Amino acid sequence: MNRITLSGIGVEIPAATITNEELVASFNSWVDAENERRALAGLEPPLAKSDSDFITHASGVRSRHVYEREGILDPTRMTPRIPPRPDEELSVEAEFGLAAARRALDHAGLEGGDIDMVICAASHQQRPYPALAIEIQNAIGARGAGFDMNLGCSSAAAALHVATGLVRSGAQRRVLIVTPEIITGHLNFRDRQTHFIFGDAAVAMVVERLEPDETRPGRFELLDTRSWTQFSNSIRTNFGFLLRSGQENTSVIEMEGNMIKQVGNRVFKEVTVAGHRFIVDFLADHDLTPHDVRRFWLHQANARMNAMILKLAFGKDVGQDRAPMVLDRLGNTAAAGAIVALKEHHEDMRRGDLGLICAFGAGYSIGAALLRMM
Ligand code: COA
To answer: Which of 40, 143, 200, 362 has a CA between 20 and 30 Å from the CA of residue 266?
Structure first.
């Protein structure tokens, strides 16, 4: 079985930002207009307003970067304005992923032609086919094959699990994982429970074979990966190809009710317990405890949730140095979040230090990768 390195990590954060205050002002102005309409129509009860202090306290999110700001804050639209492109042009999501992919290749000191498999793993794919991974494979000039996969916010961690297996067994030599998350395109900015949660980001990683005695200072050896799932409807989207067939008017797709929905407090409780158990068990299988791990790059969904998972694991509060957060300025960037935290917080690690990527989300799903600095 081959040894493996995570030799390249690339991140692309879009420039545009939206603060909680801006988001809440737009939401509340829509609520005012909607409540007037509802009162005239005799609809009860009136809709409740959103609140930026609640958002900061409940989630830890203060601001988010978005792929396209225009349209999101317009109370008559509340959806980013991302024009369709001709089929001959690079698609929006492939282009976003490509920016991160090029950085990951640079970081690994590789070119597109060195890659023999591309996996595009994200919580939202722009289309079912042709696979975005194949479009990215074509754009970078990679060999071999590409395919898309989706495991909600655990998509990148699950792709690491797949890529690690393929490289370890010798089936592939170098796999490029690309995770472009344009989650604002599928977020219901009129839903008070979820409108504040997400932001956009793309990440990419190169997983490649190491020679038996090879060491690459400043890069991680990928020691092991694991994926876990258990069915739950608590985070769900019903958007998909059968929507049209279920409607009388087949010329308009009904979006309301078919975007991201989440029972946030249930997810919080259930995934905190499952996440803690998963981490402790995964480490125990390597004769490790959380104390042996220098750094945790956890899923960036909720600051309080991560603090609680770590408190259960360590028996005390642990801070940013042990488990850095990027959520406050980026929001929940779905499967990209833990990898952004990894990219921004690993250069101070010493040879031999262990680190754990652990992402969790819809499914439910949890995925992890155990790394050691070479
Ligand atoms: N502004 C003001 N009040 C709000 C609000 C908003 N935007 N959204 C909800 N509230 C209200 C609720 O209506 C509720 O009011 P009530 O007590 O009168 O019923 C109250 O705030 C508490 O709501 P709750 O949903 O229990 O809040 P919470 O503390 O659980 O925080 C989340 C909500 C979404 C931030 C949190 O549950 C969470 O992050 N969950 C985990 C999500 C996750 O990990 N997902 C997986 C990865 S995608």
So the answer is: 200
pLDDT in tens, 38-75: 999 999 899 999 999 999 999 999 999 999 999 999 99
Q: What separation in angstroms does the CA of 167 have from each of 5, 17, 143, 275, 318?
A: 10, 38, 15, 27, 34
**Distance from Cα 275 to the centre of ligand 1, integer Å:** 19
Looking at domain 220-373, its CATH class is: alpha beta
Q: Which atom of ligand 1 is nearest to the CA of 196?
A: 7
Alpha-helical regions (H) of 86-229: 92-108, 132-140, 155-169
The tens digit of pLDDT for each residue in 240-263 reads 999 999 888 888 888 888 999 999
Instruction: For 319-337, give the DSSP string.
Output: -TTTS---HHHH-B-GGGH
* Chain segment 183-208, per-residue pLDDT in tens: 999 999 999 999 999 999 999 999 99
3-210 and 220-373 have identical folds: yes
Out of 153, 210, 313, 356, the active site residue is: 153
Give the residue whose CA is nearest to atom 39 of ligand 1: 302
CATH for the stretch 3-210: 3.40.47.10
Is 120 among the catalytic positions?
A: no
155, 193, 263, 300, best to mutate for ligand 1 pocket (most atoms within 8 Å of CB): 193
